[in-house]
Design goal:
The complex is a heterotrimer of chains A (318), B (297) and C (590).
Chain A lengths: L1 H28 L4 H7 L7 H11 L5 H15 L12 H36 L4 H15 L2 H15 L15 H35 L2 H9 L3 H30 L2 H7 L4 H10 L3 H29 L1 H4 L2
Helix pairs in contact in A: 1-13, 5-6, 5-8, 5-10, 5-13, 6-8, 7-8, 7-11, 8-10, 10-13, 11-12, 12-13
Chain B lengths: L20 H8 L1 H23 L31 H37 L1 H15 L3 H12 L3 H28 L2 H8 L4 H37 L11 H11 L6 H28 L8
Helix pairs in contact in B: 1-2, 2-3, 2-10, 3-4, 3-6, 3-8, 3-10, 5-6, 6-8, 7-8, 8-9, 8-10, 9-10
Chain C lengths: L5 H21 L33 E5 L19 H5 L7 E3 L24 E3 L2 E7 L4 E6 L4 E2 L9 E2 L2 H13 L11 E8 L2 E6 L6 H7 L8 H7 L12 E7 L3 E6 L6 E4 L2 E4 L5 E5 L4 H9 L5 E5 L4 H7 L4 E6 L2 E7 L9 H9 L3 H8 L4 E2 L21 H6 L4 H10 L7 E7 L3 H16 L3 E7 L1 H9 L6 E7 L3 H9 L13 H12 L3 H18 L2 E3 L2 E8 L3 E2 L13 H5 L2 E2 L1 H6 L3
Parallel strand pairs in C: 1-14, 1-15, 19-20, 19-21
Antiparallel strand pairs in C: 2-3, 4-5, 5-9, 6-7, 8-9, 10-11, 11-14, 12-13, 15-23, 16-23, 17-21, 17-22, 18-23, 24-25
Helix pairs in contact in C: 8-11, 14-15, 14-16, 15-16
The chains are: A mainly alpha (318), B mainly alpha (297), C alpha+beta (590).
Chain lengths: 318, 297, 590
């Protein structure tokens, strides 16, 4: 088991390295310098003298490979991801402010997604091809088919008109006030989770169907075992193994892809940070966020793989 | 075409695909059949949009702005007086183009990567999987913004990047299907009599991997259409005046949702119904074509 | 396969229900929702404001300021960001500020909605108690107020009095900054502290913008050296003489300010003088999505919203009838600039023809619902003394604003384009408004045979195209005028950044220089008017009607009338004079 873990960890390093180089380079290739953006914010002309002053002040006059080495060595040896070009504050600080927000939203969405998907998936499998199956599956797929920004907008706007109520637009950390924190994050968490639930529901259903047809299940029926016992103890446990993998695959979606939800519900998460930073060409922030996201995703994948290995001994042999 | 032994207890595998498939679809999977019919309808609308649309998609008539549905304008008009029905029809055309192109591209990429990686195994597999891993941790948004910034917003870029992203992600499914086929006896048999790899790939591996590929293709269409609508919301979609459902919903749909709910309802319903149908049809396909796929990741 | 028995079904159903119920409970509204939708709206309209009421202290204000979709750009004045006053104008003060006693609400003639125009006769001293201009050489002598204190900020500084040294320090830091605008302070010879409370600016020559550039403009917020020493970029170190201190900053969400109990200024209400500020806390909310911001306003989570699109107003009036509104021209004007250094726009006939092909009245009526002005650029009606309406303009200008496609076609034919031509126009993805507006313009141009190809670009790339002067012959820009002198200079002087029409006229440049050197405002106004006429005649752009926007606020917000700026993008002092009627707010159910 230990070698398995070690091997997986070592595999992360080259992946991260390649990815970091690619993002570092490509972001700087986008036309439209941060310089132009900064200059445009000012009132008067941009003479060449000012351009040079600005470039030097931001440290952008060195060749790209030098910038990259400088950046990567600072991270590896000092844990310092540089300073934002716009704000002059450390990137690490900005990231650390956003990570708990994204994490919390993702956790709520994941839980909600599972809470919707598992019961529907199991139910659909047990009642395969009945009207109940169709209705339940349709409900889940319709949630997937509605564009998330539309679902989010409707959830935000219509309660305010019908009942004069809307979710809070102020972010309060969970540690400060759980009630206020949830007042903002529950609704977007549910919206995000509902949209993602269809994928998990589908997998749960197919896995349950597969497992329910197995010989050992038939034996259990034949033995006259309590139905609930059969389902929970035998079928569900085996069916859920690939579902765990699916959960792991959804994490990148939750981190970077929740941008739309973050935008509508005013959630200061990593998705919005990334979007803003790219729009402003704030290179250190973009590369910092990317690295952080990559590390988190790879860690989650590792945990998922390990859990999978724990649950299914066959996998460990590979 | 060789068919592998179905697992015990599975629904009887189809004898031969062309015959009996459609009747099985309508008989056993009515929901999927419904999805198929809807998709065909939208496909027809998209293809025939130029012919059946009563107005152009950019016929501006400012004095007719935000008219509710009427006999002249079945879906009403938008804030510039353009006919919403026509725009939806042209939107169907765009969705067909974007959806099908991106899905085809994605499936092609998934197939290539999956087959190469899964069949040859060993170091090639390891290398390719490293690359796939690295790609999968890219926030797709960054890649999209980069591409859109370098090449400007536009349809080819969006199709390209959606195809690439979905393709690489889907390669895992094809790869595991290939791996499971690879282990079967008849492949070993073919290899032991010295059949060349391309022949094995074409005659044995590919046909058995075809079902998951078909299912992927179908569901990817819906995913691509949905993804474009999300991009429109962030301002990265196909630029106006192109009447994609996504940009109609994001733009005039949300801004004028109180003055003209039909501005949002029309494209929103189109989007939802089409994506729903692709999913439901894809599910039915999967159930019918390849019960084995139920077990693959 | 036999069907599952009821206990299992019940278990699954129960689990699902409990999860969803838990989620629903957590999001239940704090106050009990009204029975029927109709009665959820506040029952009575606001009570009529009789004689000035006695202001209450306390409570909090939640404000959606102008540009509420953008987070704070920087907390360091030396970064030369335009948004500095908009973000921390409650904390850092300037030498001068607009006098709200001269506002329309109080019987004066200024609306205080313009982004960077404060008429000289509407200025009052903020940190300056009095000032005077001296000649030979040109000098500005500023006498500061006495007893203005910087509050104590743990880890940054102890409480101390503002002195002339602080002003000198701020100026020198700005002038030395690598991000400085080139040439901005070239007219200044030196700045010295004559004594503890007197600052003397010695100019090399007179500059008409002297009070703007360091007095009440974008860049003159006085930041003490202790803040810089601790690190001005970090919001935790922010500390100024203003009515509020910076309490908290959540990027992408909000900035929160807390009352400075030792603030020096007071406000006269109903003949009596009250120390300000009134509200205990003020929060500026950052919300990227317009629907969300309007929802927050509707549900009372926002007390003041400084920009409300005209099309959103009818629905708000219906669902939140107690809201008060105030209308004002947008400070941004939609202009399609035409590159005069390319064919065929080097021919004035072609440019004028394109202008005549646009049916502006129809755009006002159909696109903006009647809420727009045809002529508001380069001078806007909000600048009295500098603005001339269309009726006062000479015929040559009136002609370009009169819809006449027949004449347009004739002019085009004269210029050698009887069958029209095609040209590319660049626009950014930033606003969906642009695309629709341009589509209308393209439709009008098509009627006279001119084809406009619209190229949509991502915002930064679009801006860079202009910055590097590689932009298309047509370039659509929402341009803020700022103030009369800046408006003409920044877009029509040779080589300026915001000059996408590449207008190049050495005679005009000379006139601009003369305008700056003219100390008599009335003479300057005449010069400005003449130059405006000249530009409009030459038509290096297609000016589209400028829309009106609204400010909205709830009736418990008192001593406020929709004013939004008393400095360059600076609403702070306005907000500091607002008080919250907390009882009214509670009675209305918020």
């Amino acid at each position: 088991m230990r070698t398995y873990i070690l091997r997986r960890l070592l595999a992360l390093v080259p992946t991260l390295f390649i990815a970091s180089v690619i993002v570092f380079v490509t972001v700087r290739l986008i036309p439209g310098d941060v310089i132009d953006l900064m200059l445009s914010q000012n009132d008067l002309t941009a003479s060449s003298r000012t351009r040079e002053q600005l470039i030097a002040a931001l440290g952008l006059d060195k060749p790209m490979w030098e910038q990259y080495l400088h950046w990567i060595s600072r991270i590896v040896f000092h844990g310092d991801m540089g300073t934002s070009l716009w704000r002059g504050t450390p990137v690490t600080q900005q990231l650390l402010e956003r990570v708990p927000v994204t994490f919390e939203l993702g956790a709520i969405a994941l839980l909600v997604g599972l809470a919707i998907a598992l019961p529907i998936g199991v139910y659909s499998a047990i009642r395969q091809d009945t009207t109940g199956d169709y209705v339940a599956r349709s409900f889940s797929i319709v949630l997937l088919a509605i564009p998330s920004f539309w679902l989010g907008t409707m959830v935000m706007v219509f309660p305010s008109i019908w009942w004069g109520w809307s979710p809070s637009v102020e972010y309060v950390p969970f540690t400060e006030s759980p009630a206020k924190n949830l007042h903002q994050l529950i609704v977007p968490g549910v919206v995000l989770g509902a949209a993602l639930s269809a994928i998990t529901m589908r997998m749960t259903r197919t896995m349950m169907l597969e497992v329910l047809r197995q010989d050992y299940i038939r034996t259990a029926w034949a033995k006259g075992l309590n139905e609930r016992l059969v389902i929970v103890r035998h079928a569900l446990r085996n069916a859920l193994i690939p579902v765990i993998t699916l959960v792991g695959l959804q994490v990148p979606l939750l981190i970077g892809g929740a941008v739309i939800i973050e935008q509508i519900f005013v959630i200061p998460g990593m998705g919005l940070l990334m979007l803003e930073a790219v729009q402003q060409r704030d290179y250190p922030v973009v590369t910092g966020v990317f690295l952080m996201v990559g590390v988190v995703v790879l860690m989650v994948n590792l945990v998922v793989d390990l859990t999978y290995g724990l649950l299914d001994p066959k996998v460990r042999m590979r | 075409m060789a068919v592998a032994d179905p697992p015990i207890g599975a629904v009887a595998a189809p004898a031969r695909r062309p015959r009996g498939f459609w009747s099985r679809l309508f008989r056993d999977k009515p929901l999927g059949a419904f999805g198929a019919v809807v998709l065909l309808f939208f496909l027809a609308c998209g293809v025939l949009a130029d012919v059946i649309a009563p107005y152009g998609f950019n016929d501006i008539s400012p004095l007719d702005r935000i008219q509710p549905p009427s006999l002249e304008h079945w879906f009403g008009t938008d804030n510039l007086g353009r006919d919403v029905l026509s725009r939806c029809l042209y939107g169907a055309q765009l969705s067909v183009i974007i959806g099908l192109s991106a899905a085809f591209l994605a499936t092609l990429i998934s197939t290539l990567i999956g087959i190469v990686s899964g069949y040859f195994g060993g170091r090639i597999d390891l290398l390719v999987q490293r690359f796939v891993d690295a790609w999968m941790i890219f926030p797709e948004l960054v890649v999209l913004i980069v591409v859109v910034s370098v090449l400007g917003p536009g349809m080819p870029q969006i199709i390209g990047i959606l195809g690439l992203g979905l393709g690489i992600a889907g390669s895992r499914i094809v790869r595991s299907a290939v791996i499971s086929v690879r282990e079967h006896m008849y492949v070993h048999a073919a290899q032991s009599i010295g059949a060349p790899s391309p022949r094995i790939l074409w005659r044995h591996v590919f046909p058995n991997v075809l079902p998951p590929i078909i299912v992927l293709l179908t569901t990817r269409v819906g995913t691509a259409i949905l993804a474009e609508s999300g991009l429109s919301f962030l301002g990265l979609g196909v630029p106006p005046p192109a009447p994609t459902w996504g940009s109609m919903l994001t733009g005039s749909g949300r801004t004028y949702m109180f003055d003209g709910p039909w501005l949002a309802l029309a494209p929103g319903l189109c989007l939802t119904v089409v994506v729903y149908s692709t999913n439901v049809f894809g599910d039915a396909l999967r159930d019918l074509l390849d019960p084995r796929m139920r077990g693959s990741r | 396969m036999k069907k599952p028995t009821t206990p299992l079904r019940r278990a699954i159903a129960l689990a699902t229900l409990m999860t969803l119920a838990g989620a629903a409970a957590a999001q239940a509204p704090a106050k009990a929702p009204a029975a029927a939708p109709a009665s959820a709206k506040p029952a009575a309209a606001a009570p009529a404001a009789g004689p000035a009421e006695k202001p209450q202290y306390g409570g909090s204000l939640s404000i959606g300021a102008n540009f509420y979709t953008l987070s704070a750009l920087s907390f360091d004045a030396a970064d030369w960001t335009w948004k500095f006053n908009n973000d921390v104008g409650l904390v850092y003060e300037h030498l001068f500020v607009g006098d709200l006693d001269k506002s329309v609400r109080k019987g004066g003639k200024y609306a205080f909605r313009s982004d960077a125009f404060i008429a000289y006769d509407s200025l009052r001293g903020e940190l300056a108690e009095k000032w005077r201009l001296l000649e030979n050489p040109w000098r500005a002598e500023i006498t500061l107020r006495k007893g203005v204190m910087f509050p104590a900020r743990p880890g940054v500084m102890a409480a101390r009095e503002l002195t002339a040294e602080d002003v000198v320090y701020t100026y020198e830091r700005l002038a030395k900054s690598p991000r400085k605008i080139a040439g901005y302070y070239d007219y200044v010879d030196k700045v010295e502290a004559k004594d503890k409370y007197t600052v003397l600016f010695t100019f090399k020559n007179y500059n008409a913008e002297w009070d703007y550039r360091f007095g009440w403009g974008y860049y003159g917020g006085i930041q003490p050296k202790e803040v810089v020493a601790a690190g001005a970029a970090d919001w935790k170190h922010a500390n100024g003489t203003g009515p509020y201190t910076l309490e908290n900053y959540v990027q992408g969400s909000s900035i929160t300010f807390r009352k400075n109990p030792n603030y020096w200024d007071s406000e006269k209400i109903g003949g009596q003088s009250y120390k300000i500020p009134f509200a205990d806390t003020i929060t500026y909310r950052t919300v990227k999505d317009e629907s969300t911001m309007l929802t927050a306003l509707r549900t009372g989570k926002i007390d003041i919203l400084e920009t409300v699109r005209w099309s959103a107003v009818p629905e708000l009036k219906k669902n939140a009838p107690a809201l008060q509104f105030s209308r004002a021209l947008s400070t941004l004007n939609p202009i399609v600039f035409l590159r005069v250094d390319t064919k065929p726009f080097d021919d004035i006939r072609v440019r004028r023809a394109l202008n005549m092909a646009i049916n502006r009245a129809e755009i006002v009526k159909a696109y903006w619902g009647g809420n727009a002005e045809v002529l508001a650029y380069p001078m806007t009606p909000d600048w009295p003394g500098y603005y001339e309406p269309l009726s006062a303009m000479p015929d040559s200008v009136k002609e370009t604003f009169t819809y006449d496609p027949v004449k347009a076609k004739k002019l085009l034919a004269e210029a050698g384009f009887p069958n029209g031509f095609s040209f590319k126009t660049q626009v950014s993805t930033a606003s969906s408004n642009d695309a629709d507006l341009l589509a209308m313009v393209a439709a009008y141009l098509a009627k006279v045979g001119v084809k406009m190809e619209i190229q949509t670009m991502e915002y930064t790339a679009y801006l860079s195209a202009m910055g590097t002067k590689t932009h298309a012959p047509g370039y659509m820009l929402w341009l803020g005028g700022s103030n009369p002198t800046v408006s003409l200079r920044k877009s029509f002087v040779t080589g300026q950044y915001w000059n996408p029409s590449m207008y190049k006229d050495p005679e005009f440049d000379k006139k601009i220089a003369e305008m700056y050197a003219e100390p008599d405002e009335r003479v300057r106004q005449v010069k400005v008017k003449l130059m405006t006429r000249e530009i409009l005649e030459k038509a290096p752009f297609i000016a589209l009607p400028t829309p009106y926007g609204y400010a909205a606020w709830w009736p418990w917000v008192k001593n406020y009338g929709g004013e939004t700026r008393v400095g360059a993008e600076r609403p702070g002092p306005i907000h500091a004079r607002v008080w919250v009627d907390q009882e009214m707010k509670k009675k209305m159910g918020f």
